[in-house]
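User: what does the whole thing look like in 3D?
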Amino acid sequence: MAQVALGLVNGAFYAMLSLGLAVIFGMLNVINFTHGAQFMMGAFAAWLMLGILGVPFWASLVLAPIIVGLIGVVLEKLLLKRIYHLDHLYGFLLTFGMALIIEGMFQWKWGSSGAPYPAPITGGTDLGFMIMPSYRLFVVVAALAICLATWYGIERTKLGAYLRAATENPTLVRAFGINVPRLITLTYGLGVGLAALAGVLAAPIMQVSPLMGTNLVLVVFAVVVIGGMGSIMGSIVTGFGLGLVEGLTKVYYPPAANTVIFVVMAIVLLVKPAGLFGQAK
Amino acid sequence: MADTLLKVDGLQAWYGESHILHGIGFEIARGELVTLLGRNGAGKTTTLKSVMGIVEKRTGSVTFDGRETVGLPSDQIARLGLAYCPEERGIFSSLNVEENLLLPPVVRPGGMSLAEIYQLFPNLMERRRSQGTKLSGGEQQMLAIGRILRTGASLLLLDEPTEGLAPVIVQRIGDIIHQLKGRGFTILLVEQNFHFAATVADRHYVMEDGRVVDMIASADVQQNIGKLQAYLGV
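Assistant: Here's the predicted 3D structure for the full assembly of 515 residues, as structure tokens:
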């Protein structure tokens, strides 16, 4: 049971990161390989603000995603918007290159070893079957709330309707008088902000280090493939679900814990190539 | 013309390397209903898209209410008061009927209210929670027209609203277009179905190979029926 609950913590990060990727992919048609670096930037932003300015965790939770999101907006306006009309491959190369550059710069400045971030909530919560560190419990609940809020924003609001419509037919949405390029920039900023928010939440659990996003995001891409590219609810459910699967594998057959998600991905691709929640095109 | 709303002059348009429109010109007065007739591939749809600013490249002049629009992006053109109903209808499958109706933002005061639109299209009211693309072809067409009536646009660009629909629905669409004209909308209609076009329009422009080759007022259609049939190859 304890492993299951801890699996949920990993699942919380998978869900938040794959959700951001799904939102970005739906709108920009770009697979954002910079996502892991942006997750790391969120954690670093919180760590730096704490170290230099003494900004507490709770303020960073709001400020870091805004800062990193704005950096995302600049990247979109300077670089990404030039490649939308090109093949997917160019989006992959550009965002992958951006990730290498960003992570390289952080390594050059701060080294690879990483630094701890003090947990803002200490102690444990008795769940009946286990005592869970209170901060980890908070992460699961917060991630769930963030995911559901994002889902609500996209599926139930006016801005979300613009996003969904522009994902389907940007030309027509623009011909209705909506500034679609601005909507795309905003979407990228939002997706990047989600990654940074996950990064801030991760800072007290993982070491804050330049490569903290790299390993995580590898799993997250598998999650996105399993859930179906661009599916909002799919990302959330698959993210938490695969965290659980991973946790359970740790209980029953620990050596497979690191590979089980990729095995699931292979099976899903064979049986349902568009992903569990994806629609075949 | 006394009160010209749309004036197109020397308009050329391209898709990639293909040159589709070769300098077309026509005018529409406020409150008028004008059709573009012509065979498949004559450039009618491209003309609508060029007026709306959604072709890759266009040159020449398109003035709306005295303002030059060539060079503006399509979202700004829409905000001047033009609204476009595409041939493929463009209903969004991820939006329900009401979300589809409410999607285009209001760009000018004076548009119809949602209640008025539902009054015009009672079917849409009944199915307002359905997924947009689950509607029948006729209902989707009504949705595509209905959703551009809210925005306050004064010029409606309708691309083949009767295509692929049963005769009884075609008649219904014809009634609606009549009513819209009665409400003061200016309408540019692309139509393959000449008999339908003849019943609703004030004037017809005939297109051939990316050029406007003739203009016939509805009153003169009977005298020119032979000529028209030659143009349209019917």
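In plain terms: Chain A touches chain B at residues 158, 161-162, 164-165, 167-169, 171-180 (CB under 8 Å). The longest strand of chain A covers residues 124-126.
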